[in-house]
Amino acid sequence: MSVGFVQHRIQAEARARRAAKERCGSTEVDISNIYKYFPFRLFGLERAALKDLADLEFEAELELCRANPEMIQQYLDMKRGGFRVGFISDTYWSSEQLARLLRACSPGLSWDFLYASCDHGSSKSEALFETYLAGQGIDAASSFHIGDNHNADIKGARRHGIGPRYYPQASPALASKLHRETSIFELLCPDQPSRLDHGARTLRRAVAAQSAEQSPACQLGVTVLGPVMAAFDAFIAARRAALVQQGARVAIGFLGRDGFLPHRIWQAAHDGRGAYLEINRRISLIGSADTLEPLCALLSRVIKIDAPTFADIVKVQPPAVMAFFAQYPDGIADGKDLADALPDLMDADEITDIAAGVRARLLAYLRATIPDFDSCTDLILADLGYSASVQKSLRRIFDREGIRIRLHGAYLLTLDDAFDDIADDDTAEGLISDRVVTPHVKRMLIRNVALLEQLCCSADGSARDYRDGEVLREGDQRPAVQLALAAEIQSGALTYASRARELAPRYALQPYADQAVAARWAAAILGRFLLLPDDDELMLLGGFKHDVNLGTQALAPLLDANIINDCIIARGLSSACMAPAPPMWLAGSFAALSPSHAYLYTLFGTNRLPANVFGEVQCGTLQVGLFRDDGQASLEAISVYHTGLGDLRLRIPLSRRMAIATIALPLAKLAREGMLHGVVVQSGESAALAAANSNVTAIADGRLVYAGIERSGRHFRSSGDDGMLLIPVDGFADDVAVYTVALTSLSHDRILAVEDRDIKGAPAATLTWRSTDRPSATNGN
Questions:
Q1: How far is CA 721 from the centre of its chain?
Q2: Hey, which residues does 744 pair with through a beta bridge?
Q3: pLDDT at 704
Q4: If phi over 0 gives left and psi between -120 and 50 gives alpha, with beta otherwise, what is residue 700?
Q5: By CB count within 10 A, which of 430, 468, 539, 546 is most buried?
Q6: Per residue in 545-563, pLDDT tens?
Q7: Do 697 and 585 contact (CB within 8 A), yes or no?
Q8: Quick one: CA dihedral 426, 429, 434, 439, positive or negative?
Q9: d(Cα 609, Cα 601) in Å, to the nearest integer?
Q10: Digit-coded pLDDT (tens) for 216-270
Q11: Nearest 5°: phi and psi at 716?
Q12: Which residue, 395, 390, 363, is CA-closest to 257?
């Protein structure tokens, strides 16, 4: 209801201004004129409520408006300098109301003149400056005007010879981010108002205005990462305060490596308190193990692992395990294969001894790092998230060692359905929990969280063990330029947190007073950044790598638009939205294709991308030529599909036994002019398995042969229906390969589904195969 009220209020103002323009040539109206066009009956109100609504809106304005301290200071300086100073405003509030509003924001404020556009029927872009000059009897050249609207304040002042100074409320880049955030907020939190944030945006604009000269990386920290981390810091502080109020002796530990930035912000705000704990899932899991099961669970999630890495994890080299690795090329095994074989390769007693050693070294490290560790009753573990795996392992370690400290997870993002097995006396809670956004949305955010991890991470390698209370680390494979850029972004986040703490009281703002509101806006800011990055952010961060640090020292790309483009060609948009890593930053890879692709991915993540709209529908068949190595050829009918975006997709399944060397596709029969998006190939044991395979290989554009077709980049044009696209077929090891061609036709209207209309006279038919040499699937789906 509140959203509808606001929208009707906005529409009423638009209608009032249009009517005023038609009536007297100016769009200026007062608040009463606006509410004359409001639909009172819709909200169960009588028209006599007009004055009450106008008064209530003004009361809200009095409550929400804040004076800019910088403007107040400049105002007072000019007054002390002997200048006549006043206000000229384009507003639907009368001069009397404007005066009340100014004094409410700054008690005792006085002025020499005050002009409200609605009182004079003219705006600053029209004749209001002229009215001011005539009324005050002063020369325009001796007058100076400060404003935040370039057209009204700057151009309007110059038009009348007045010297202007532009003071924007937000830079164009920040304004664009704020606009996108509103859109993301309404997607992620659809039942919540997107206009009230307890001054969080006002605070961001104020801090950003003071940091306008900093580098793009630092600006990213100030305007995006800093506000999220400041909200997280307030969340942790609230958790701590609640425990202290219950009489607990509380210690706080920020889990490395991506708890590094939250730890720095906490230390700056809380007199250096709080420990930075370099404990990862691998160490805590091994230390808590009393059977091989936890180690097997860990290894099953590892893609590739070698013998040295295994020995580094478990601290021993069992001969049977070493022999297992020796069976694999270069000694690199699949993690799941090792997990399945491990119970037959190691004795359970071995892991018990290993775990006891890890526990002893870990506890020595905790006692050396956390002051008065043994005297605290409660330990808060702060981390980005997500399923509290380190917290659960520490609980098992503490229980085995007789340590009764309660553990409380304070996480930025949480997979809340993973908390059911948290110990009864322990707790785990996320700032952005499943009460803030849906589980579907949460998993989309976490699918893209690798970027945030890199920005929050320390510049050190991951912990591998401890000695005498000190941490031992792995080498860090990340490029030095990436580490330097992340450090610069972290510096901006620290700047925001510091200046926000200073400015919030001056503006009388409490952006974190309501934790639920703060959490929703943290989700919107983070969601906008991860899901709808702008071009500047893509340029800045597109080269980042993610260090896996589990079984391999390899670096995985955060962003790869080509992989996503090939996946869209092969499997469609919805399948691409579920593409496995890498790339680690899936949404950024969509955004690198286009902002629209990123928004469609976001719609998918919020469950608003219906399959029957964005999926594909068969719209006919086409005869293609298949040429064998021995020169023999055959014609086969393949199905043609159109997608939700109006593109055409053709899938051509081939059996390895067919020995096809070239596919001849009569491209001009589909479209005499169009855009060829690409040709890709997938393989598998059957056509269905091949089409579902996420391993997609693109055929290089230079290998495609256009016969009777003019080509410029992706654009093609044929003068007749005989233009052909020749696709080379390479050998493939699997039984079946599926070649997929995607294009957009520019030479006809949208092709309708097969039950409505056939393609240009082609007979409607499903794809069938007439030989046992051919795949048995009907259409490769």
A1: 45
A2: 675
A3: 96
A4: beta
A5: 430
A6: 998 755 456 788 999 999 9
A7: no
A8: negative
A9: 8
A10: 999 999 999 999 999 999 999 999 999 999 999 999 999 999 999 999 999 999 9
A11: -135, 155
A12: 390
Question: Phi then psi for 690, rounded to 5 degrees?
Answer: -65, -45
Pairing mode, strands 378-383 and 332-334: unpaired
Cα angle value 441/442/445 (rounded, 5°): 90
| Helix H or strand E encompassing 213 | none
pLDDT of residue 747: 84
Concatenating the DSSP letter of every residue in 399-468 gives HHTT---EEEEEEEE--GGG-TTS-TT-EEEEEE-TTTS-HHHHHHHHHTTHHHHHHHS-SSPPEEEEET
Confidence of residue 780 (pLDDT cuts 50, 70, 90): very low
In the chain, what's the furthest Cα-to-Cα distance? 98
Mean pLDDT of 422-447: 96
Task: Work out whether the CA dihedral 337, 338, 342, 346 comes out positive or negative.
Answer: positive
Model pLDDT for residues 608-632, shown as the tens digit of each residue: 999 888 888 898 899 999 999 888 9
- Give me the pLDDT at residue 752, please: 60
Token look-up 């530990």 returns 253
- What is the spatial distance between Cα 306 and Cα 313, in angstroms, rounded to a whole number? 11
CA distance 294 to 282: 10
Q: How many CA atoms lie within 13 A of 606 on its CB side?
A: 19
Rounded Cα gap, residues 706 and 727, in angstroms = 9
Q: Alpha carbon of 31 to those of 44, 319, 706: distances in Å?
A: 20, 84, 66
What single-letter DSSP state applies at residue 762? Answer: P
**pLDDT tens digit string along 747-772?**
866 666 554 444 444 433 333 222 33
Grouping H, G, I as helix, E, B as strand and the rest as coil, residue 519 is helix
Q: Could you tell me which of 638, 631, 694, 701 has the C-alpha nearest to residue 659?
A: 631
Residue type, 623: Q
Q: Omega of the bond prior to 501 within 30 degrees of 0, cis?
A: no
- Dihedral (CA of 478, 484, 485, 489) sign: positive
Q: In this structure, what are the phi and psi dihedrals at residue 426, rounded to the nearest 5 degrees? A: -95, 165
Helices assigned H by DSSP within 152-277: 156-159, 172-188, 200-210, 216-220, 226-245, 260-269
Contact 221, 489 (CB under 8 A): yes
As a whole number of angstroms, the distance between CA 777 and CA 653 comes to 9
Which residues lie across from 437 on neighbouring strands? none
Q: How far apart are CA 460 and CA 466, in angstroms?
A: 15
Compute how many other C-beta atoms are within 10 angstroms of the C-beta atom of residue 162: 23
pLDDT attached to residue 304: 81
Q: How many residues does the chain have?
A: 781
Contacts of 259 (CB under 8 A, 6+ apart): 276, 277, 382, 383, 384, 456
Q: How far apart are CA 605 and CA 602, in angstroms?
A: 5
pLDDT at 125 over 70: yes
The pair of three-digit structure tokens given for residue 735, joined into one six-digit string:
């039984």
Instruction: Compute how many other C-beta atoms are within 10 angstroms of the C-beta atom of residue 586.
Output: 29
List 728's β-bridge partners, or say none: 662
Residues 306/256, Cβ–Cβ less than 8 Å: no
pLDDT at 765: 32
Contact between 249 and 230 under an 8 Å Cβ cutoff? The reply is no
How many C-alpha atoms does 203 have within 13 Å on its Cβ side?
29
Q: Closest by alpha carbon to 649, among 763, 745, 519? A: 745
CA proximity to 277, closest of 357, 356, 354, 362:
362
Is the per-residue pLDDT at 727 higher than 90?
A: yes
Opening angle at CA 596, ends 594 and 600, nearest 5: 125
Phi, psi for 411 (deg, rounded to 5): -120, 150
Mean pLDDT of the chain: 91
Section 91-111 average pLDDT = 95
Question: Can you give the pTM of this predicted structure?
Answer: 0.89
> Which residue, among 546, 749, 721, has the nearest Cα to 642 in the 3D structure?
749
Of 551, 560, 554, nearest to 579 by C-alpha is 560
